[in-house]
Design goal:
2 domains, two-stranded antiparallel ribbon
Amino acid sequence: MISINTNPAASAAAYNLGNINTSLQKSLQRLSSGSRINSSYDDAGGLAVSMRLSASIRRTEATQANVSNALAFLETQDGVLKSADKVVARMSELAQLATDVTKSTSDLTLYQTEVNSLKSQLASMLTEAFNGVSLFSSLSASATPSTATTLSVVSSHDGSQTIGITQVQLSSISFYVGTAGTTSSGIDISSLTGAQAAITSVNAAIQNLATLRASNGSEQSRMTFAADVLAINKTNLESANSRILDVDVAEESSKLARFNILQQAGTAMLAQANQSTQSILRLLM
């Protein structure tokens, strides 16, 4: 049937051309944005999964920052313990020097003056803090240092895993050597007998300090591995999210070329369909 009012061929060509134009615009948008999903219409399920993965990535990044801060806390703590080690080692040296029978009482008094200053330095170390958080436990001095966990660090993005770090008991050092800058508190090397007793006390303090540094080192090691796991998890989450969200440029470029050809062909066919009705004029002439 030949009709003037309706041109089905032109309508079909226009419909196909409209669909091709829509697909072409989507392809251009994907290539220009780099994302396969630019609206919920593109992939509703994929977008929901991508949103959850993106949130997990952000939480993982925040957890990484927290773990890094905890590691910095432990490193700062170890720095103070390292300084305390030098202080106690100097005390040990002075105590040994004070056992020299050729030293006069005045000489021993001078050694004790330095020991008293070192005691005061140890006392000041007990108050060291990291961003307002005390590096060391406030427990009273004891013969055996406590290494019980005092701070809990979240080490997973979902909060299900934690790692304990310790505000070590540096005061256990002062149990043997003292903290006040007087001979009445802690070791006294102003006499030969006192110097000999001080050597035993300082050796015990050094052993406690070694225990504290070993505890700190083990916690630093675990915290470093936790940070490594978080970095790996972040990489995997980003990779999974990329497979859902990011556009395959090679594939999308091929689609763009195809849609361009179809658009040109559709435009040409629509023109042909519009021209086909002109044959009706010949019947009327």
